[in-house]
Design brief:
By secondary structure, this protein is an alpha/beta fold. It has two domains: 3-20 and 232-429, UDP-n-acetylglucosamine1-carboxyvinyl-transferase, Chain (Alpha-beta prism), CATH 3.65.10.10; 23-230, UDP-n-acetylglucosamine1-carboxyvinyl-transferase, Chain (Alpha-beta prism). It has helices at 23-35, 49-59, 95-105, 126-135, 142-145, 169-181, 197-204, 235-247, 266-273, 318-326, 347-357, 388-398, 420-427, and strands spanning 3-6, 12-18, 37-43, 64-68, 71-77, 89-90, 111-115, 138-141, 147-153, 161-162, 185-189, 209-212, 215-219, 229-230, 252-259, 277-286, 289-297, 305-306, 330-334, 361-365, 368-373, 380-383, 405-408, 428-429. The strands form six sheets. A five-stranded mixed beta sheet has the order 16-17-15-2-24. The longest helix is centred in the first third of the chain and has 13 residues, at 23-35. Bound molecules: shikimate-3-phosphate. Shikimate-3-phosphate (S3P) binds at residues 24, 95-96, 168-170, 173, 195, 315-316, 339.
C-alpha cells in the first residue's frame, strides 16, 4: 500500500502531453494477435498492469510475446496451436481480461483455472459465463458459478443469438470471441451501443463480422491473419487532464493523438454541454480508429443532466465528471449509470464517499448521483480503494485546493496510467 501526500499549492496546468495507449485497444491487440497466425506488432501499447495480465495469459498458452516498453511483438501459430496452461491464470485487477478471455477459452478444447485480485473476485462473471454456457462451455466458480476463481472446460461451441441484459462492451466482446470459435453465425444485439473496438479490430484481423446499428454478426471458424496495430492515446486517461484544465483557473492543456472513436468521446460532449472551452484538431484515421488532438482552456461551467445513450460512452469517465460537476454552478444529475456499481469499486459509493470527504455536496442514487456545485473543496485523508480511476480523480481534486490531501493506495493508478504523476508534473506551472 503506497501513501502519497498531494500538495501542489494551487497550480495552473499548461502544456502538451500524449497520454499512454488505449487500454481497451491494447488488450484486444494482444488477444487477436495471439489468435492470428503470423507476426503482429503493436505500437504505443499500454504497459499498464491490466494489459500485462493479458500478455501473461497468452504467454501461458504458449504464444511468443516480447515487449520492449510500448512495443509488443507477437509471433503466433494461430488459435489451433494454443496449449493448455499448466498453472492457474492470474487476471490481476482486469475485468476486460476476464470477460474477453472467458469468451476465447470457452472455444478451446482444454481446462483452465482463472483467478484475480480481491476487487476482481467480487465482480460479476455470470453475465459472461451464462451465454458461454448456453454455447456449450462448462464453467464453474465461486458463489454458484458467478464469481472468480472459475474453471472453464472449453471445446466445441454452438452459435447463439444473444441480447445482453446489461450495457457492456466486455460482454458483447466475450460472446463475439466465442462466436469466432463456434460453428455457425453468432449475433449480439445491444439495446444501447457500447464501445466497438472488438468489431473494428476483428475486421482488420480478417474475421467475417458485420455491424448493422446495434446488431453485430460474426461467422465462426474464420481464421484470423496477423495485423499490425498502432494504439491511439486513451481518451479515458486524457479525461483526467481535460477536466483538470477545464476546472483549474488559468489552465490550458493540449493532449495529442487521442483516440476519438465515437463510442468513447462522451467526455468531449459532456465538457461541451457544461460550457468548457474545448477544441478538437488534427483528426486522422489510424488502423480504423479516428485520432486527434484535444485542447481545453479553463472557463466558467454550467451544470448538466447526463443520462441515456451517452452513459456507455462515458462509463469510465464518471468519477472525473463528478469532480467536474462540483465546479459547475448548479445541479448536475447523472442517471442510467447503474453499471458503475460493478466496476473496480462500486463507483457510485466510492465517488460519493470520496468527494463528500473533500467537501463536495453530492448524493448517490440507485443509478447515478446528484452534484450541487460550485463548491470550494478542502483537504483530507482519502483512499483510492484500490481503484485507479478514483486515485486519479483524487489527485486532480488536490490541484484545486491549498491544503493537502493524503491519498492511500496511489499505486493502483499503474493499472491504466503508469506515468500519470510524471505527466501531471510536466503540466504544473505557477
Ligand atoms: C471495457 C468496457 C467497459 C469499461 C472497461 C473497458 C472494454 O466495461 O468500463 O474499462 O474494454 O470493453 P463494461 O463492458 O463492463 O461496461
Amino acid at each position: 500500500m503506497s501513501h502519497q501526500i498531494l500538495s501542489f499549492g494551487q497550480p495552473q496546468l499548461k502544456g502538451t502531453i500524449s497520454v499512454p495507449g488505449d487500454k481497451s485497444i491494447s488488450h484486444r491487440a494482444v488477444m487477436f494477435g495471439s489468435l492470428a497466425k503470423g507476426k503482429t506488432t503493436i505500437t504505443n501499447f499500454l504497459a499498464g498492469e491490466d494489459c500485462l495480465s493479458t500478455i501473461a495469459a497468452f504467454q501461458a498458452m504458449g504464444v511468443a510475446i516480447e515487449r520492449e516498453e510500448d512495443r509488443v511483438v507477437i509471433e503466433s501459430n494461430g488459435v489451433e496451436e494454443l496449449v493448455e496452461p499448466i498453472e492457474p491464470i492470474n487476471l490481476g485487477n482486469s475485468g476486460t481480461t476476464a470477460r474477453l478471455l472467458l469468451g476465447i477459452l470457452a472455444g478451446l478444447p482444454y481446462h483452465f483455472t482463472l483467478y484475480g485480485d480481491g476487487s476482481l473476485s467480487k465482480r460479476p462473471m455470470d453475465r459472461i459465463a451464462n451465454p458461454l454456457r448456453e454455447m456449450g462451455a462448462v464453467i464453474d466458480g465461486r458463489d454458484n458459478g458467478r464469481l472468480l476463481p472459475m474453471s472453464v472446460r472449453g471445446g466445441k461451441l454452438k452459435s447463439i443469438d444473444f441480447k445482453p441484459p446489461v450495457k457492456s462492451a466486455q460482454i458483447k466482446s466475450g460472446v463475439l470471441l466465442a462466436g469466432l470459435l463456434a460453428e455457425g453465425e453468432t449475433t449480439v444485439q445491444e439495446k444501447t451501443k457500447t464501445r466497438d473496438h472488438t468489431e473494428n479490430m476483428l475486421k482488420a484481423f480478417g474475421a467475417d463480422i458485420k455491424v448493422d446499428g446495434t446488431t453485430v454478426r460474426i461467422k465462426g471458424k474464420t481464421p484470423l491473419h496477423s495485423c499490425d496495430i498502432e494504439v491511439p492515446g486513451d481518451i479515458s486517461s486524457a479525461a483526467f487532464f481535460l477536466v483538470a484544465a477545464a476546472i483549474i483557473p488559468g489552465s490550458e492543456v493540449m493532449i495529442e493523438n487521442v483516440g476519438l472513436n465515437p463510442t468513447r468521446t462522451g467526455i468531449i460532449d459532456v465538457l461541451q454541454m457544461m460550457g468548457a472551452a474545448i477544441e478538437v484538431t488534427e483528426t486522422k484515421v489510424i488502423g480504423g480508429e479516428l485520432i486527434g488532438n484535444i485542447r481545453v482552456t479553463a472557463s466558467e461551467l454550467r451544470p448538466a443532466t447526463i443520462e441515456g445513450e451517452i452513459i456507455p460512452r462515458i462509463i469510465d469517465e464518471i468519477p472525473i465528471i463528478a469532480l467536474l460537476a462540483t465546479q459547475a454552478e448548479g445541479e448536475t444529475v447523472i442517471k442510467d449509470a447503474e453499471e458503475l456499481r460493478f466496476k473496480e469499486t462500486d463507483r457510485i459509493e466510492s465517488v460519493v464517499t470520496t468527494l463528500t470527504k473533500l467537501g463536495a455536496r453530492i448524493t448517490g442514487t440507485e443509478d447515478g448521483m446528484i452534484v450541487h456545485g460550485k463548491t470550494a473543496l478542502h483537504g483530507g485523508v482519502t483512499d483510492s480503494f484500490g481503484d485507479h480511476r478514483i486515485g486519479m480523480m483524487i489527485a486532480i481534486a488536490s490541484l484545486l485546493i491549498d491544503e493537502k490531501i493524503e491519498l492511500h493506495d496511489a499505486a493502483c493508478i499503474a493499472v491504466s496510467y503508469p506515468n500519470f504523476f510524471e505527466h501531471l508534473h510536466t503540466l504544473i506551472t505557477r
